[in-house]
Amino acid sequence: MSPKPSTRERILQASLELFNAQGERSVTTNHIAAHLEISPGNLYYYFRNKQAIIAELFDRYEVAVDGFLQVPEGRAVTMDDKTVYLESLLSAMWDYRFLHRDLEHLLGGDEALAGRYRLFSARCLKNAQAIYQGFVDAGILRMGAKEIEALTLNAWIVATSWVRFLGTNGERDFDLVALRQGVYQLLALEFGYLADDVKGQVTMLAGSFLARPQVTVN
């Protein structure tokens, strides 16, 4: 039997659940306390305000992304790595979707968080560029340095904007299927740069992220 989570951990778990379900703007510390059936004062004992809760959740998101967005050590990247990267990204985007839903609002109201996010963003771009270079070195992608740089930036824009796109497109209560299509869009950015001998594998991988029939990469 696993140990009962601490009150602090329960606050974080409940906050994440409510932020994801209702949007961060709609949830107050009073809502979180009521959801947990604790007093607001008890919540404030662990977190001085909602921004402190958000900062802790962002820290967990940051650790999760940093954990998988790395070039493998001591070996070349493979198609299996591509699957791991995409599935890990999907998991992080889903688990912390509130961060992507209203990012400008979150950063605009918290200067410290905005500074942390800028460093995180720069680090992710650097690591993702190294990963794409790894796929080029492994013969999976065929592209030059400028194309790698552009692909990295475009992929980051899609990854960080897809949840917001779903919201502005009328899908505030989107599900995991809709989020999986966002991962497909990331793969679609690579279609024109694939080596011939991996196009079939990428077609199958892309199709696994779509609810609709699979597409063929020509």
Automatic annotation (TrEMBL):
Keywords, ordered alphabetically: DNA-binding
Descriptive protein name: TetR family transcriptional regulator
Gene3D superfamilies per UniProt: Tetracycline Repressor, domain 2
DNA-binding region: 28-47
GO molecular function, one term: transcription cis-regulatory region binding
Domain of life, per lineage: Bacteria
PROSITE patterns, alphabetized: HTH_TETR_2 (PS50977)
Record-linked Pfam families: TetR (PF13972), TetR_N (PF00440)
Keyword DNA-binding: yes
KW DNA-binding (keyword) present: yes
Domain HTH tetR-type: 5-65
